[in-house]
Structures are given as C-alpha cells and as structure tokens.
Amino acid sequence: MLFSQIPGQQEIKQHLINTVQTGRISHARLFFGPEGVGVLPLAVAYAQYINCENKQPTDSCGQCSSCLKFEKLAHPDLHFSLPIAKTKLVDADKVVSDDFMPLWRVAFAANPFLSLEDWLDKIEVDNKQVIINVEESQRIIQKLNLKAYEAEYKILIMWLPEKMNPSAANKLLKVLEEPPDKTLFLLVSENTDSILPTILSRTQLLKIKPIEAAEIAQYLEFLHNVPASQAKSIAFLAGGSYREAQRLLNQEVDSNFPVFRQWMRDCYGNKIQDLYNWVESFSKEGRESQKSFLIYGLGVIRECVIFNHLGPNNVKLTGEELTFVTQFGRFIGNTNGPRIIAELNRACEHVERNANSKVLFFDLSLSMTELLKA
Question: Do the Cβ atoms of 348 and 295 come closer than 8 Å?
C-alpha cells in the first residue's frame, strides 16, 4: 500500500514519513479514527515505508522486493491480528488470525478501506461475536520472538484492538511494553474507549481525522470516472469517510432526496397513517440503504443549520435540495437541531446493530414529528 493510494491525510502522511527519516519510530503506535477515513490503509502504508529498500522522499518506491511483498500482504516479517470467530470457512478448535490470512489478503486487496461489517460478510460469521482471543496473543508472542526473515523490522498490525478480550490484552502487556529488538506494534482502532487503559498507556497515539470532501471528490473523479457534480455530492454526503463514499457510489444517491423531503413533510404535518405506510415500505430496504438514507438526512439537517447561521453562500447543496433547505431550514433551530441530529445518529447505530426496522423507523418518525414542532 502506497501513501499516494490514500485520499487526503497529507499532514498525517508527512508526519509518518518524518518519523522514519529522522529515526524516531515508536515501537508501539496506535492509529485511531472513525470508520472509513483510512486508518488501516495508513498503518499498512507506514509499515511498507519502514521496510522499503529504496525509500522516496514522499512514499515507498513500490518496486523493490519488500514493497512487492507488502503489496500482496505476503511479506514474512509483516503479521496481522484480526477479530475472528469459528466459522463454516475456518472450523478449527482454537482459531487464530493466521487461519484467515488467505481471506484477509483477498478482502484487503478488494478494498483497503473495508469495514468490520465487510470483514464479517467475507468470513461468514453469521451472528457470532468476533474477538481477538488469548490464543491469538500467545501466537503473537511466539512469532515476534523469532528473528526477522529479511526486513529490518518485524511489524505486527492489529486491526481493532478494542475486540481483544481482557485475557488476550493482559497477556500482551509485557511484550507490548518491552518488545524484542526491531519489533513494531501498529494498532488500528475505531473506538479507543473500549481499549484497556493499560494497553493505551503503552502506545503512542495518532488521531486520524475525516478526509476533506474535496479530496474524496477528487479521488472519485479520477479513480472511478465519476462526473464532477456527482463526485461533489457523494463526497458531501460521505462525511469524511471514503468507505461511505464507496457505498454511496454504488447506490442512487439522488433517490434519497425526494424520500427524505416527503418524510419530513409527513412528520411536520403529523400524518400518522402516511408515516406508518412509509415505515412499512422502507423497513424492507437493506441495512446499507437505510443507513445511507439516515446519513443523507444528517447532511441535510447540518446544511439547514449552516444556512441559518452563515447564509446560503455557505451551503454546499444546489438545485431542488438548496430550495428545500432554504424553506425547511426555518423549522431547524438551536433547540431542536442538535436533538434531531442526535436522533438520526442514534438510529444509524441501531441500524448497524440489526434493530427491528419497523419499530426503529416508526419511533424515529414520531420523534421527528415532536421535534419539528419544537
């Protein structure tokens, strides 16, 4: 993975490159940030740059033996630790990440910005809970105590350390604090609140922020041949997540607008029967479509807030969407605006947790009916 293959994050990329060029490589670094902003790709690109045999000022060379092996995640001194569970595809007594490496290489090659949900679909875990178990910690210790095969550094990338159970985390404390010579830990997290404080205290934290919309739009234009206007619309709705932009790219983005507009009108008009009919229909949509709709709604509400405070010149929407915001914005104030955003965010979380769609969206509709009158 090259840094140039990751949209945006120029400041972070330069910081990571500087640590290598100046010899200030931390033995344990925790990359953390929201899903889809490039936390995992940045960690992989950093690992590749560290062991590149012909480092360039701004990136790995991409051509040396080390880079070619990193590109396939097949370098003998690159190791991964992943959230896993026993599945139909891997049915060992005590599963560890090494059992899933062929699947992991395929999943990462298909999309380096993959989410946990993407990974669960890939390994077909059904409704099982994935974890990083104590057997995994034991395997990590065994591997890292071996000498490096050919690179200067042995590197372990642990994806989602928040999935470690306490036994696994405690077993790694000593090696994390005093690792073998030329051994690096790169932890990649989306929720540091769920990581044991004893793990956090032994790592150097690096926060990854959402990607600028202009950077996402640029990548969509040049990598996916998306028209500029559509790329800007998708980038705006993605909220700084390139993974979300990929999801939106595969959907009819504009179809969310008329549905959201009518939903808001029915909520404001307290049209309970119409809302019930809409919920009956919308609850049959897939989770990704429902989540996309809610994220779109969050974007519109935020634009209403911007319109009210900063005026129309600062609103990113155009056409019918802009007209709607100018009219609908007067119903979004300082009191109900944050509460509406909170309700939509809460609904997104419940969709991800497989909540009952009918109950969720009817309850959300009733809440919107009340909040729009506030």
Answer: yes
